């Protein structure tokens, strides 16, 4: 079982390295930190995979499923808003940006009206949802690492956005929260 888990993690890592190849050359970019968050989440999912459907009505499983399902909400709304914004302009060509990140206009509507990073919020919920499948000290370490890396990702992206959008983004930061509407 351990060998299969290691093989699955290696395969997932290879895919993540490929997607993040440009960002991995830029340690101060948000994509660099996002890669490490993805790695921690992948490790957490693989670590807890054997318990994914075990004892489905246990309190930790119910909490886990609630977080995993909830993680789809900011993801869906965030991707939708970015897709709509891309139709307006696609002039942003920074190295390491994924296709959905190339909006040249600041998106402040929909879910972005209250939080700046809905996709990272989704990944936080995913990480902690995966952790609660089979809570353990190694899992807690991976979930904490993912959390720290996602905060670093968001901060790096905010520096990039301040350079690109200028004072408009600074004003937007004062009006919104990072991950949780009206809280954080």
Description:
It is globular, with a radius of gyration of 17 Å. It is built from 7 helices and no strands. The mean pLDDT is 91. The chain has helices spanning 2-24, 30-48, 59-70, 72-86, 118-131, 137-165, 167-175. It has 184 residues and is an all-alpha fold.
Which residues sit in consecutive blocks of at least 5 with pLDDT less than 50?
none
Overall geometry comes to globular
Helix content: 55-70%
The class by helix and strand makeup works out as: mainly alpha
Total helical segments: 7
Overall average residue pLDDT: 91
Tally of extended strands?
A: 0
Radius of gyration: 17 Å
Q: Report the β-strand fraction as a percent range.
A: under 5%
Along the chain, the helix and strand elements come as HHHHHHH
Largest sheet entry: none
Q: What is the first-to-last residue Cα distance? A: 39 Å
Short description:
This protein is mainly alpha-helical and 184 residues long. It contains 7 helices and no strands. The mean pLDDT is 91.
């Amino acid at each position: 079982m351990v060998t299969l888990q290691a093989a699955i993690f290696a395969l997932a890592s290879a895919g993540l390295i490929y997607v993040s190849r440009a960002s991995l050359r830029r340690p101060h970019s948000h994509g660099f930190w996002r890669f490490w968050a993805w790695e921690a989440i992948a490790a957490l999912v693989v670590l807890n995979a054997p318990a994914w459907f075990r004892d489905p009505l246990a309190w930790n499983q119910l909490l886990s499923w609630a977080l995993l399902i909830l993680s789809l909400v900011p993801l869906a709304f965030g991707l939708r808003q970015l897709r709509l914004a891309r139709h307006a302009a696609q002039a942003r060509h920074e190295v390491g940006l994924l296709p959905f990140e190339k909006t040249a206009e600041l998106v402040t509507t929909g879910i972005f009206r209250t939080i700046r990073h809905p996709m990272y919020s989704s990944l936080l919920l995913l990480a902690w949802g995966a952790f609660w499948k089979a809570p353990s000290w190694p899992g807690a370490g991976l979930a904490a690492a993912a959390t720290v890396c996602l905060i670093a990702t968001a901060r790096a992206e905010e520096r990039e956005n301040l350079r690109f959008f200028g004072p408009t983004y600074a004003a937007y930061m004062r009006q919104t929260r990072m991950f949780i509407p009206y809280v954080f």
